[in-house]
Amino acid sequence: MKLTGRYLEDFAVGQTFRSGRLQIDKERIKTFGAEFDPQPFHLDEDAARDTIFGGLAASGWHTAAVTMRLLVESDLKPAGGIVGAGADEFRWPRPVRPGDELHIESDVLEVRPSRSRPDQGLIKVRTTTFNQHDEAVQIIIANLVVRRRPAQRGEETDATELVDRAS
Amino acid sequence: MKLTGRYLEDFAVGQTFRSGRLQIDKERIKTFGAEFDPQPFHLDEDAARDTIFGGLAASGWHTAAVTMRLLVESDLKPAGGIVGAGADEFRWPRPVRPGDELHIESDVLEVRPSRSRPDQGLIKVRTTTFNQHDEAVQIIIANLVVRRRPAQRGEETDATELVDRAS
Q: Do A52 and B91 touch (CB under 8 A)?
């Protein structure tokens, strides 16, 4: 698999990227919960009823993982892949329920070259995950490491021509 | 499964909670990647070599999910479960590699009652995930919703006594 896609120079503040939809399956909520977040509200309908969620809900980390899947499949596609350095903000305003259908919208908030690494830069992207009622279930403002566009063959030729002319 | 554990009143700034250890399996890195983060550096050793990671690495969301598992099994145990409202900071300073053995340390940074909900409060907890070399692979500062201790039977009796005496 070859990584191609957008370089830092191809991103601009104000760009928006959208995804397809993924449905959250009840059984996957439970198996994800059993492996990574074994608490009653992620494991069993009856036990979930008396909790703060009032019923079965997906682990926030399940929502985060599905959001990543949607982001990888969106048109964002940075050259070198989606590599997160971390997040400035991260919230789950509403639980995800069995059968919910999620999609995302990613807005580019900032684009800047790295001070220490001339071959890369950072983009700040706010990704909002919505359910089928267009209610936000997760908001994350993440910093992604993105490659800068390598020097073009054309530019190299130009440099050689300058040397040629100077000699 | 009955939820018992610490109420807001049982948490104090400066408390530290630790976990056991969990090893990250190479095959699980790949299957997690295939389901949630299908990018070359999470799927295949050869394809990962030429990427920013220079080899196979766990998805950051896999690291986050395993961290949650460690946190659920730690002594933190808030009454009502570990319910995250979101995070103020979230970073992956170092990749997680196949075979890495992770553990966590959680420090309570803040404890405060809710202004709008008299039955609950928030604690701010910094959870650092370490590998077997005690290098941090994830740092998250999360806000958790925690129940306040319900009125005690003793206090109710006192109130009744006051009414009795007043009548």
A: no
Residue A1 CA: distances (Å) to CA of B41, B42, B43, B47, B61: 10, 12, 10, 7, 22
Cα B35 to chain centroid distance, Å, stands at 23
Least confident stretch, A1-10, A80-89, B150-159: B150-159
HSE on the CB side for B137, CA within 13 Å? 26
CA distance B64 to chain A (A): 7
Cβ of residue B60 closer than 8 Å to a chain A Cβ: yes
Q: Which two tokens stand for residue B86?
A: 């979101």
Contact between residue A90 and residue A140 where contact means Cβ atoms under 8 Å apart: yes
Contact A127, A106 (CB under 8 A): yes
Given a contact cutoff of 8 angstroms between Cβ atoms, the answer to whether A7 and A147 are in contact is: yes
Residue A137 and residue A62 in contact, taking contact as beta carbons nearer than 8 Å: no
Nearest CA in chain B to A44: B1
Region for B3 from its dihedrals, namely left if φ exceeds 0, alpha if ψ lies in -120 to 50, beta otherwise: beta
Distances (CA, A) of A53 to A34, A60, A156, B16, B81: 17, 12, 60, 27, 11
pLDDT in tens, B75-111: 999 999 999 989 999 999 999 999 999 999 999 999 9
